[in-house]
Amino acid sequence: MKKSSTLTNTLVLVVVTFVAILALSVVYQVTKAPIEQAEINARAEVYKVVYPEAEDFAQIDNTEALLEGSADLLSEAGYSGCFVNDVLAVVDPATSSTAPKGYVIAATSPSGYGGNIQVAIGITADGVLTGFNVVSHAETAGLGSKCTEPAFTEQFKGKKAETLAYSKTGASADNEIDAIGGATITTGAVTDAANAAIAFYQAHFGGGLTPVEEVDPMAKAFPDVDPESMIDHKMDEVSGENYTVNAVKEVKDAGYVVIVTAHNGYDGDLQIALGIGNDGIIKGFSTLICNETKTLGGQCTSDEFAAQFVGMKADPVSHVASGAKMENNEIDMIAGATITTDAVLTAVNGAIDYYHKELKGA
User: Fold this and answer.
1) What's the angle, vertex CA 154, arms to CA 152 and CA 160, rounded to 5?
2) What band does 327 get if pLDDT is binned at 50, 70 and 90?
3) Which residue, 76, 90, 101, 103, shows the most beta carbons closer than 10 Å to its own?
4) What is the pLDDT of residues 268-299, one digit of tens each?
């Protein structure tokens, strides 16, 4: 009798447990969709400012895998250290179509003056930015913190979802924004984060990453001259203080391109090419080798930095503090990258010295 009672109790317990599990499963299935939508809505509240016309948001299939792979994807696209935090689709609840009207993407750059900067952008399905916002940052109050102000953030709205650049002298191209005065590092980090989000959009929703147009760096050293027409000028390597003159290219009837490596860069050797005309005027500048931090010393590779040298006399060049008034043969120092700026000038002045000693009048 006792054995039978124990068996009965066990069977009852098994049945009750099974029924409880079944009930919980039913409850889970009933509440799963509302819970997921509530989580989406909570995330969307942060992003609505960048997509004001959005009526509803939806989770994207395979989101977790897309986010996990974002760091590698962005590293290959040239945004090392950046990653995507979140992505949501913008949908139209009034239609049965599952095709997104657009997307909101949050991305982080590690290169802010105070550390990580996370931004969010909205992009329509046909590739137009609907808005931009800085979600989190640790930038200096009154300087880098201006990245959150409408005067800065509203510049992004309406731009194409293509690689963005910034200008310290006033945006002049469709893909440019004005830098924050006195906060070049912050501007660079914010731009990198925005470009990371754009690259993520292009890769997964926009038909693939936009190919980067390769430009022969030697063409920047002597514009409007085909690098293939430049002739190797016979010379032996010449060393100076912290630099080596590696090679010289002759531009027939026009001048020379002097290639110099500076050995005092922040992250190792830095090599430049300087074009000098027969009239003793600098024609162009190009950075050939640069291991500097992209948003700091790496700015020496930008067209804006290079343009400062064009038109100068081939006399010693110096630098002034970023934003200060410049006189003849002075360039604007790269903000936060004094060592890199000094290395560039070591190479440039080495090239100029070699030009005067070995090439001028030859």
Assistant:
1) 115
2) confident
3) 103
4) 999 999 999 999 999 999 999 998 877 778 88
* Mean pLDDT computed over 67-87: 91
Closest to 160 in 3D by CA, of 127, 126, 203: 127
Query: In this structure, are residues 120 and 105 in contact, taking their beta carbons and an 8 Å threshold?
Result: yes
Q: Look at residues 160, 143, 147 and name the one whose alpha carbon lies nearest to residue 109.
A: 147
d(CA 207, CA 201): 9
pLDDT at 323 (0 to 100): 63
User: Computed from CA positions of residues 228, 234, 236, 239, in that sequence, does the dihedral angle turn out positive or negative?
Assistant: negative
Ramachandran angles phi, psi of 109, nearest 5°: -110, 140
d(CA 58, CA 60): 6
> Torsion-angle region of residue 242: left (phi > 0), alpha (psi -120 to 50) or beta?
left
Measure the CA–CA gap between 164 and 346, rounded to whole angstroms.
30
Q: Parallel, antiparallel, or unpaired for β 176-178 and 165-167? A: parallel
The pLDDT, as a whole number, for residue 358 is 94
Per-residue DSSP letter, 215: -
Please tell me the distance from the alpha carbon of residue 330 to that of residue 312, in angstroms, as a whole number.
Answer: 9
Task: With 0.85 as the threshold, say if the pTM is over it.
Answer: no
